[in-house]
Specification:
- By secondary structure, the chain is of the alpha+beta class.
- About 25% of the residues lie in helices and about 35% in strands.
- The strands form 4 sheets. It has a 6-stranded mixed sheet, sandwiched between helices. The protein has a 5-stranded antiparallel sheet with strand order 13-12-11-14-20.
- It is elongated.
Length: about 350
């Protein structure tokens, strides 16, 4: 990670039914960081603490190495995009974008040039003289993003910026957010509860639950190597087996009931073994010699469009995600016996606490 531009040290705040507890976090310069968690986890509270809209009861917040706990929001050098976008209905799009620069008393020519540059970057030049009331959700999001960027912020804070949009618009704007980030390099902290959105934009991810940051890492680390049962369930590992681990010359063996599974790494004692459903392979014929090979009847099938979710009773409850083409090629149906297996390198083991 690059040198930390935003750093939280032991930040705590109780705000009605929402809270943050002892949150410590560092976001590097130029990084796109997503804070991911379920509704009510404390994501917005934490973001508002960084923005200066809430003051923590304990802990410290630094921006560019400066302690900002008692610095007013407008003096922190941050751009903030709230969930509802908060565009001014009495101002047209150009005036909304330039608002922050005007209150900072920037020259009119500079404001006009910046508005034009950002409008071109975000593809909204044709909207500059339109009222926000006449914009679609995606257009309002672009205008609000331009307004947040216009002041040249050290850090851009995005609070569930795509939550009100339909899936197709959200996918398109994820591409836009990454493109804008690549072009401007603005350090970004983005709050979300959506997995697809997070994977589309994030350099690193922080998982928050009940006001506590549970894990921080790349998408690969968080989604494939969760550190707790909550994180594993939240990132949809689905195959979460509790057992007893012992070390072997080749890695780890985890005994789950009467079954044993091979996994990479070195673990001992009471553990969870997790395997993402997309890493579980399904076969009609029995591929002898494969590690972690099981067989059992299919007890559930859910069509998810491009993928099919297959639930198998193989002595343990096992879930696989297979492509529609592969599934149709098997000719399998609920009740049929199927073979399932996974590579030990796809299995992740962590201690229970």
């Amino acid at each position: 990670m690059a040198q930390a531009l935003v750093e939280l040290r032991g930040v705590s705040l109780q705000l009605g039914e929402f809270s943050v507890h002892d949150a410590s976090l560092a976001v590097g310069a130029g990084e796109y960081f997503v804070l991911l968690g379920p509704t009510g986890a404390g994501k917005t509270v934490l973001l508002e603490c960084v923005a200066g809209l809430q003051r923590p009861e304990r802990g410290e917040i630094y921006v560019s190495g400066q302690l900002v706990n008692h610095v007013a929001p407008e003096q922190r050098g941050l751009g903030y995009l709230p969930q509802d976008y908060a565009l001014f209905p009495h101002l047209d799009v150009a005036q909304n974008i330039g608002f922050g620069m005007r209150i900072r008393r920037r020259p009119a020519a500079e404001i006009a040039a910046k508005v034009q540059d950002l409008a071109a970057l975000l593809g909204i030049t044709h909207l500059l003289h339109r009222s926000p009331l006449r914009l679609s959700g995606g257009e309002r999001q672009r205008v609000a993003l331009a307004r947040a960027l216009a002041i040249g912020p050290k850090v851009l804070l995005l609070d569930e910026p795509l939550s009100a949009l339909d899936e197709q618009t959200r996918e398109g704007l994820c591409v836009e957010l990454r493109r804008v980030h690549a072009e401007l390099g603005t350090t970004t902290i983005h709050v979300s509860h959506n997995f697809e959105e997070t994977l589309a934009v994030a350099d690193r991810i922080g998982i928050i639950h009940q006001g506590r940051i549970r894990q921080v890492g790349t998408a690969e680390e968080v989604f494939h190597r969760p550190v707790s049962e909550f994180v594993a369930r939240f990132v949809r590992s689905e195959n979460i087996l509790r057992g007893e681990a012992r070390r072997t010359a080749d890695g780890t063996v985890v005994k789950v009931g009467a079954m044993e599974f091979s996994a990479a790494g070195n673990a001992e004692g009471d553990v969870f073994l997790t395997v993402r459903p997309e890493d579980v392979e399904v076969s009609v014929s029995r591929p002898d010699g494969r590690p972690n090979l099981m067989a059992g009847p299919i007890v559930g099938v859910v069509d998810r469009g491009a993928l099919v979710r297959v639930q198998i009773d193989a002595g343990v409850n096992l879930v696989a995600l297979v492509t529609r083409r592969h599934w149709q090629g098997t000719g399998l149906r609920p009740g049929d016996v199927v073979n399932a297996f996974f590579d030990p390198r796809a299995a992740h083991v962590f201690r229970t606490y």
